[in-house]
Amino acid sequence: MALADETADLPPREAAWVRALAFATVRWYVQLEAMVEGMLDRPLKPRDAVIRVLLCQGLAEIFRFGTPDHAAVRETAELARAIQRPGAVGLVNALLRRALRERELLGQAMQRTPALRHACPAWLVAGIRASYPERWEAVLEASTRAAPMTLRVNTARVSRAAMQERLERAGLAAQPHPLVPTALTLAEPVDVDAIPGFADGLLSVQDAAAQWAGLLLSPQPGERILDACAAPGGKTGHLLEASSGGIDLTALDVDGARMGRVRDNLRRLGYRAQLVIGDLADPEDWWDGRPFDAILLDVPCSATGVIRRHPDIKLLRRAADIPALAARQRELLAQAWRLLRPGGRLLYVTCSLLADENERVVGSWLAATPDAKPLPLAFPGGDDRPVGRAVALGAEDMDGFYFALLGRAG
């Protein structure tokens, strides 16, 4: 949001360049900062954090964009001059020129450890390696690439083939996703206003793996369904599309501002649901006492599975966050279970890559819940877990997700 605001008044090409440079700097920041620290004679002071960021940005131009050497140095020095910090311009010039001289040696040094090679904090490398022991390097490599723009087709109103043809007539090349029957992936990202059918609710922007949530819960006409952590409403809309609007859907979220996005999405799609601002952990404040036939529980998580879309997760998330998130996830799972009728089903979903938020949460909860059992998942992709299935980040160019379908004894 901040980046969009800052680039709103720029010409389109300049805005695109600023966004690309900002994303690359954040995506590779762990590696770029290590280069900076390795070349400094003494550490920068905390008040010079903006200089550190400028140096990382200049290195991103050199190592990630191939900007001409003199241009990368000149542009970064000009930015340093603008902050009016004594010595900043000289430091930027000296360090970036040294990086140009030692480019090959610096590049080699960054290959020595997985954390630097993939610009990922060491704690997260360890967690991904433990969760994906056979493909952890591929997952980390995928985390450094930009994500594709994938669309969800409302197949209740138009076929995927017809939508693909319409996109291509508009000059937008798109390919059907091999594992997700509602997904089309664009060859190049575009503004949603340029996508035919988007404003009319025929299409939504949603990663292919995320689209499995609506498909795996498999809403049936007439069912009473709860989308328990609904905002911003992508999965809410898909549940309605998958049932042609024939379900009694309650969309719940604790955040009133984000619930506004659910409302906007449903208005664009042309569907209706009961929108409730409330906390799943306190159902007495909003629940009418009637149990639900099915519940979609997309719990708050570390979001490490969408790290290529939000690379700042690498910088903002900490290892110490995970136990607290897992405790919250178990609490929400227990609370949601109380609202489910006997014979009903609950789909537990995260966009986390970490077993501590996925099968370990569900497995420990199942062990303590006699009337719960895992149900099979009709999902052609992903990896089997002790409970549920995980989609590795980058597999078939999808985000990282975890799904567990749970049934309540009748």
UniProtKB/TrEMBL annotation:
Pfam families: Methyltr_RsmB-F (PF01189), NusB (PF01029), RsmF-B_ferredox (PF22458). GO terms for molecular function: RNA binding; rRNA methyltransferase activity. One of its GO terms (biological process) is regulation of DNA-templated transcription. Keywords: Cytoplasm, Methyltransferase, RNA-binding, rRNA processing, S-adenosyl-L-methionine, Transferase. The keyword Transferase applies. S-adenosyl-L-methionine binds at C229, A230, A231, P232, G233, G234, K235, D253, D279, D298. Residues 139-409 form the SAM-dependent MTase RsmB/NOP-type domain. The active site is at C351. It catalyses: cytidine(967) in 16S rRNA + S-adenosyl-L-methionine = 5-methylcytidine(967) in 16S rRNA + S-adenosyl-L-homocysteine + H(+). Its EC number is 2.1.1.176. InterPro entries: MeTrfase_RsmB-F_NOP2_cat, MeTrfase_RsmB-F_NOP2_dom, NusB-like_sf, NusB_RsmB_TIM44, RCMT, rRNA_ssu_MeTfrase_B, RsmB-like_ferredoxin, RsmB/NOL1/NOP2-like_CS. It is found in: Cytoplasm. One of its GO terms (cellular component) is cytoplasm. Specifically methylates the cytosine at position 967 (m5C967) of 16S rRNA. Belongs to the class I-like SAM-binding methyltransferase superfamily. RsmB/NOP family. This is 16S rRNA (cytosine(967)-C(5))-methyltransferase. It comes from Thioalkalivibrio nitratireducens (strain DSM 14787 / UNIQEM 213 / ALEN2). The gene is rsmB [H].
